[in-house]
Amino acid sequence: MTTRMQVLRLLGEPPVRGPLDLAVRSEATFQGGRRLLIDYAGDEDERIPAYLLIPEAGPRPATLRGAYAGPPVSENLFARPPSPQAPGRYPAVLAVHQQAGNYFHPKNQNTEPSKHTIERVEPDRVTISALSSNGLWACTYDFFATHCTFTMTRMPADKKYWVLYEGTPGGQYDDDDWWMTSAVNTPQPMTVNHEGDIPAPEWIAFGDPRLNRTLVLWHHEDDAFPDHFYQMERKMTVFGFGRKKTQKFLDNVPQHFSIGFLETTNPAAISRALPEWDKIKIKTQ
Ligand SMILES: [Ca+2]
Ligand SMILES: [Ca+2]
Fold first, then answer.
1. Which domain holds residue 30?
2. What is the whole-number distance in angstroms between the Cα of residue 63 and the centre of ligand 1?
3. Mean of the per-residue pLDDT values for the chain?
4. What span, in angstroms and rounded, lies between the C-alpha atoms of 128 and 118?
5. Which CATH number fits the domain that encloses residue 107?
6. What's the predicted TM-score (pTM) here?
7. Tens digit of pLDDT for each residue in 94-139?
8. 48 and 21 together in one domain
9. Is 169's pLDDT higher than 90?
10. Which of 33, 36, 68, 72 could form a disulfide with 52 if both were Cys (CB 3.0 to 4.6 A apart)?
C-alpha cells in the first residue's frame, strides 16, 4: 500500500456537506465582469465569507471562480450562470435537502443524480418516481390538473430531511409580497419571518398584491416540528417544512407535500381546497 493510500485510509470518509445556503453581501461591477462578496454555510454553525468573480459572458460560456477565506471547498461551485433573482440559487418548486447525499433539488452543481421513471400516464395524472444514485432516498411526483404532490417514500433510518419552497411570488421578490398560514390568516409582508410549527392543516400560502392568486404549499401529515420562512437578501423567498435555520426535522416516510395555485386569496377557500386535492389523489390511486 502506498503512503498516500495509508493516509487516505486513516482520514476515513469525507465529511458530509450540508446545504450551501448562499447569501450575497455586496456586489461590485467592473469592466469584464462582477465581483460578489458572499458567504455560505461551512457547516451548521459556521458561515464562510468568500469573493466570487463572474466574468461577462463572451464567446465561451461564463464560468465562475471563487476565492475563499475559509477552507477550500471547490473552485467551481456553480456550473451555470446564477439566477438573476438570487445569485447562486435557482428558483425552485419543491426542493429537498438532506444528509447522506444531496438529492431531488432542481439541477445545480450540488445536486447529485437520481434515476427517474415514468410510473403512470393517465389523462388526469402523471406519476414520476425518483431514486437517488446511492439508493438511500426515493420519492414520487404526482402531477394533477390542479396541483402536484411530492411524496418522500424512502430515507435512511439515521438521517433527517426538510422540504423547501424557494421562489419569487408574482415573478419577482417584492417587500409587499405576502405569506399566510392556517394560523396566521391575514397576509404578512415578506419582511416578517415565520418561526415555529404551523398547526393543522399545515399549509402556507404566498402571493403578490398585484395578483388575485395564491401559491399554496400543503404538508399532508401534521407534526409539531418547526416550519421556517425567511426572505433571502430581498431576492427570494425560502420556506421549509421541518426546518429551523439549518436544522432538519422530518424523520419518517411516507410524507406528502402538495403545491398548487388557487385563484383566491381567501384563507377559508384555501383550507377548503386542500381536502379536494387529497380526494383527487385517493380517487385515482
Ligand atoms: Ca403542525
Ligand atoms: Ca411542522
1. 11-82
2. 43
3. 79
4. 4
5. 2.70.98
6. 0.67
7. 555 556 677 887 777 777 888 989 999 988 888 999 999 999 999 9
8. yes
9. no
10. 36
Q: Where are the beta strands (DSSP E) in 184-235?
A: 188-189, 202-207, 214-219, 227-232
Please tell me which of 28-37, 46-55, 79-88, 156-165 the model is most confident about, judged by mean pLDDT: 156-165
Q: Nearest 10 degrees: CA dihedral of 69, 73, 79, 82?
A: -40
User: Taking the CA atoms of the chain, what radius of gyration do you get in angstroms?
Assistant: 20
- Separation of 268 CA from ligand 1 center, angstroms? 18
Q: Considering every ligand atom, which ligand is closest to the CA of 202?
A: 1
Q: What is the pLDDT of residues 215-250, one digit of tens each?
A: 999 999 999 999 999 999 898 899 999 999 889 999
**Domain shared by 75 and 112, yes or no:** no
Distance between Cα 206 and ligand 1 center (Å) = 18
The whole-number average pLDDT for the span 19-36 is 75
Same domain membership, residue 104 and residue 76: no
Q: Assign residue 171 a region: left if phi > 0, alpha if psi is -120 to 50, beta otherwise?
A: left
Measure 59 CA to ligand 2 centroid, in angstroms: 48
The rounded Å distance from CA 222 to ligand 2 centre is 6
Co-location of 141 and 259 in the same domain: yes
Nearest bound ligand to the CA of residue 240: 2
Q: Residues 76, 133: one domain?
A: no
- Contacts (Cβ under 8 Å, ≥6 apart) of 91: 83, 85, 166, 167, 168, 236
Ligand 2 centroid to Cα of residue 274, in Å, is 16
**Domains in the chain: how many in total?**
2
> Which ligand gives the minimal distance to the CA of 194?
2
